[in-house]
């Protein structure tokens, strides 16, 4: 696999310094040197001491990652929103797990991505899921095509710089036009339900009210942290559970048979091209059916 960077820095640095600052671990760098893997600077073979400057292009050819033979291949199609040499963006349907677990090892989104790549001749790719969604949450999932791409995005994840927006339909009315929820989330015993508890992990959610009728409210939601069930926990703690969310006691007979939550937009800075990437997933039909009004222009 060839990885390319468009250099965007005013600080001159050696090739070795550049690679170590851009997702190449010390262990992988040692492997590059030992195996003589080609590193190019502006299409010419480079040495570790060569100076890398703003506007340069760096490319590195890496061997394929070892395949994870424990992950089964699923031939069920996926909805691809975007794909390039490093990233795959998929619109996950509700009712599908993101990764294999004890109850399903053969047909999750990860299995389907592996099958999709194999069907298209990319048998040497290993999917690395960046953004996960709950089983019954639909919407955008980002996967990296190589561990280097994943590691390059990790600082943005840790610094909460990935912008993730959701559409949520909740029971009840009376929420303000804008709200911020900063309440720690944790687990009590072994129950699957998470709760707002004093000694939980910090969690931060913002929401904007888009529409409401006599019994429900439509929200645009942004999460700044990625706790399990974060949106579901925070909104149910406000006594506004998601419509269709059985686990958090949302109403189950309002026209949708899963929690009304859809990850509709994702934005991040591509560390390879130094460009902002923004993706949008259309609102699925089952959520549109319960909306009191069309809200696409408000998202």
UniProtKB/TrEMBL annotation:
<dbReference type="GO" id="GO:0003723">
    <property type="term" value="F:RNA binding"/>
</dbReference>
<dbReference type="InterPro" id="IPR006224">
    <property type="entry name" value="PsdUridine_synth_RluA-like_CS"/>
</dbReference>
<dbReference type="GO" id="GO:0009982">
    <property type="term" value="F:pseudouridine synthase activity"/>
</dbReference>
<dbReference type="GO" id="GO:0000455">
    <property type="term" value="P:enzyme-directed rRNA pseudouridine synthesis"/>
</dbReference>
<dbReference type="InterPro" id="IPR020103">
    <property type="entry name" value="PsdUridine_synth_cat_dom_sf"/>
</dbReference>
<dbReference type="InterPro" id="IPR006225">
    <property type="entry name" value="PsdUridine_synth_RluC/D"/>
</dbReference>
<protein>
    <recommendedName>
        <fullName>Pseudouridine synthase</fullName>
        <ecNumber>5.4.99.-</ecNumber>
    </recommendedName>
</protein>
<dbReference type="InterPro" id="IPR006145">
    <property type="entry name" value="PsdUridine_synth_RsuA/RluA"/>
</dbReference>
<keyword id="KW-0413">Isomerase</keyword>
<dbReference type="Pfam" id="PF00849">
    <property type="entry name" value="PseudoU_synth_2"/>
</dbReference>
<feature type="active site">
    <location>
        <position position="134"/>
    </location>
</feature>
<feature type="domain" description="Pseudouridine synthase RsuA/RluA-like">
    <location>
        <begin position="87"/>
        <end position="236"/>
    </location>
</feature>
<comment type="similarity">
    <text>Belongs to the pseudouridine synthase RluA family.</text>
</comment>
<dbReference type="GO" id="GO:0140098">
    <property type="term" value="F:catalytic activity, acting on RNA"/>
</dbReference>
<dbReference type="InterPro" id="IPR050188">
    <property type="entry name" value="RluA_PseudoU_synthase"/>
</dbReference>
<comment type="function">
    <text>Responsible for synthesis of pseudouridine from uracil.</text>
</comment>
């Amino acid at each position: 696999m060839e990885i390319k960077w468009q250099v965007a820095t005013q600080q001159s640095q050696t090739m070795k310094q550049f690679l170590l600052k851009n997702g190449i671990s010390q262990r992988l760098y040692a492997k590059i040197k030992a195996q003589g893997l080609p590193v190019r600077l502006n299409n010419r073979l480079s040495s570790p001491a060569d100076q890398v400057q703003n506007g340069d292009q760096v490319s590195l050819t890496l061997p394929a990652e070892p395949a994870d033979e424990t992950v089964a291949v699923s031939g069920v199609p996926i909805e691809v929103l975007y794909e390039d040499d490093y990233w795959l963006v998929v619109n996950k349907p509700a009712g599908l797990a993101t990764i294999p677990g004890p109850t399903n090892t053969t047909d999750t989104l990860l299995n389907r991505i592996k099958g999709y790549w194999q069907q298209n001749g990319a048998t040497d790719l290993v999917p690395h899921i960046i953004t996960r969604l709950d089983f019954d949450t639909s919407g955008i999932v980002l996967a990296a095509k190589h561990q280097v791409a994943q590691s390059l995005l990790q600082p943005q994840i840790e610094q909460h710089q990935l912008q993730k927006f959701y559409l949520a339909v909740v029971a009840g009315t009376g929420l303000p036009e804008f709200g911020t929820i900063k309440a720690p989330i944790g687990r009590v015993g072994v129950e699957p339900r998470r709760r707002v508890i004093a000694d939980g992990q910090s969690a931060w959610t913002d929401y904007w009210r888009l529409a409401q009728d006599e019994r429900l409210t439509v929200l645009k939601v942004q999460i700044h942290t990625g706790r399990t069930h974060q949106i579901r926990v925070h909104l149910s703690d406000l006594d506004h559970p998601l419509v269709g969310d059985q686990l958090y006691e949302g109403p189950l007979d309002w026209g949708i048979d899963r929690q009304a939550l859809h990850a509709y937009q994702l934005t991040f800075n591509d560390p390879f091209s130094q460009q902002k990437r923004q993706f949008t997933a259309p609102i699925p039909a089952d959520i549109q059916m319960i909306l009191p009004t069309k809200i696409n222009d408000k998202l």
